[in-house]
Amino acid sequence: MSDSCDGCGRAVEDALARAVRLQVDDSTVDDQRLCPTCFADWITRYKEKMSPKASKESSDSEIIVD
Question: Is pLDDT at 43 greater than 80 in this prediction?
Answer without folding.
Answer: yes
